[in-house]
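Appendix B, record 7
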Amino acid sequence: MSVDRFDSGESRPRGARMPRRERRVQLMESALEVFVVHGYHAAAMDDIADRAGVSKPVLYQHFPGKLDLYLALLDASCDTIIDNCRLALASTTDNKLRVQAAMQAFFDYVSSDTGAFRLVFESDLTSEPAVRAHIDRVTTECAAMIAEVIHEDTGLPDEASRLLAVALVGMAQVSARFWLGEDGVSSGAIPLEDAAALVSGLAWRGIRGYPKSEDT
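Structure tokens (predicted):
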């Protein structure tokens, strides 16, 4: 996926008034496109307003500042990843398939056309405490869900289950981002489904080594 697909020079035509909720969604979509292309520091509220086809006062009616807008987008992006992980774990009671579904969720997310993963995995504002807290929430909440499954299946103590879960989440994040490539475009050498299967296979071979008892 290439961020070049977003032409930040193209502004939406200024349109009629719309309900506040719809306008907020529109502004966030436009802001996402600008932040994905330019990053936080280089993006300007003028660019976002132009992209959305609104005046700056309209933009500021919804978001008091650039950081507020960025955090709203980041929060929505983090919710998406966490929800996808939750759905993957709930999709089956077979733990091998759970691992596959969870890994697939991360690979699907980074390959999305929106480029929203860049806000979470490639943010240029991680020195900001509020941003760091949002990004850490992805690991914390996904790992908590996975740790619960590991604990129930293996009987390992909570802390050990959590450590293994964090390792699995880290594996998913890093491998998916590596597969995509630095320029945001997969080389195509390994298709998405095959890449996710390779990594989930590695994860499963490791995690299944912790049986609940010697008899299982």
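Remarks on this record: The chain has two domains: 3-64, 73-207. The domain at 73-207 is CATH 1.10.357.10 (Tetracycline Repressor; domain 2).
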